[in-house]
Amino acid sequence: MRFITILPSVFTTIALAAPFTIDTRADDNCTPISYTLTDYTLVTSPDSASVNFNLKSSFADGTGVEDAVQGGASCNASGAQLPNNNVCDVADRRLLFDLRGPQDQAYYQVTHTWTCNGATWISGTPVKVDPLICSFAGSTCTCTGGPMTFAPQNVRKICNSPSC
């Protein structure tokens, strides 16, 4: 019986000691809130392919963030077929993209790295450009898309030690 009378007072004490608001994690400032893709163009023909687009990252609060992609980055690739391991035009290989499907599906994996509060962060986001508006001139297909805004995925801090 004594256990039953003590238990409610213990729960009351714990509830009163708990904070009324939950502070956001300091890491929240380090996570981009969105990416915006613009000026997407894909051109394919029987013997060549090229893709061009711009990508820009946005943070709710840029405090402590060092990210060249915030100013926008130009991304392009070309070849007989679109290659993988494509580096966008931004310093230090901070933005990469790879195909996730056949080149005419406009489906990519975008890998973005940045620095925040002295740590390096990374996101890996699948992106399907949709809708595409395509036109044909002979055997050449030109598709355009965007602008489109999407949320980053798989955001995490890159850690080189057990303490982070």
UniProtKB/TrEMBL annotation:
Source superkingdom: Eukaryota
Q: Which UniProt keywords apply?
A: Signal
N-terminal signal peptide: 1-17
The name on file for this protein is Hypersensitive response inducing protein 1
